[in-house]
Amino acid sequence: MKLGRISVDTPFGAVSRLVAVDPTKNRVVDLATAELLRRQAKGATRDAAQRFASAIFPGSMSAAIALGDIFLETAHEAVEARGDDAATPISSVNWISAVDPPLIRDGLTFVKHIRQFHERVGAEPTEALLEIPGYFKGTPFTAVGHDAEVPKPFYTDYFDYELELGYIVGRVCHNLTPDEARKALFGVTIFNDWSARDVQKIELKIGMGPGKGKDFAFGIGPWIVTMDEIGRLDDLEMTVRINGKECSRGNSAETVWSPGELLAYMSISEYVQPGDLIASGTVGNGSGLEIDRKLEVGDVLELEVSRIGTLRNRVGPPEEKRWWPERRKKFW
């Protein structure tokens, strides 16, 4: 099943709605509306049906995933019973981030990207990459969806993208094995780890992980494909287009660490939550750094992954510069 989130205008402001996506029929189905109609047909009052539908299909994808099996089971039943009555053309909806993750964790697993990234920056990959599946934590509050405009940060002269897979966690995970962790995944989406390369370079020297080099935006979408539908994760074709022209192509095959190993490691002595997004790291050829292509205002970026879809965003003008730190005098 393909599941996403859209924004709908109401007299009280914009609200998020969970939808089932059917690209073959060029439509999305508002799951809460479909379930309301299904419950009413079974004898529930409108108020009771609305309370039930809103509980199973809130605006939060993470909250819905946390309900467990009843979420997907009810989604299938609602679409089958009343999908036609709650459908909207795909072309008319306003997409938002496919999931509202409690936390974003971004790994580094694709062998070709690791090699090519380090070649571009003139460094050797650290052998620590072979010891543990490293990752950084990103803010979930700047997640953007399909067709959103992403302002180019005013503080960067090297605006970049990173084409990745985003694994969505399906239940609370604590001290799991890789096999257990693989079974705990809910689905997969496309993840764009937008990057300010010049600021990232400085932050890496500090050794505390990325901050302003990453946290200004994370692209998630256009929708989530559940694990039962996506099938294998090691044979996905991954393509980058800028302004309609294909720039690069990669494949999800060659990794240092599997998705199960990534999640299992993250769950050690920690509680990973339903709806958390775990990113794969960039696929080989999946960043502008690897092909010497910076993004500029007005560029339209399309990241396509087979069996998932296409995540498209436009680079917008920078926000107004208010303040930026000045270099301090050396004190050691």
TrEMBL record:
Keywords: Hydrolase. Residues 104-315 form the Fumarylacetoacetase-like C-terminal domain. SUPFAM superfamilies: FAH. It comes from the Bacteria. InterPro entries: Fumarylacetoacetase-like_C (IPR011234), Fumarylacetoacetase_C_sf (IPR036663). GO terms for molecular function: hydrolase activity. Gene3D superfamilies: Fumarylacetoacetase-like, C-terminal domain. The keyword Flavoprotein does not apply. This is Fumarylacetoacetate hydrolase. It comes from Bradyrhizobium neotropicale.
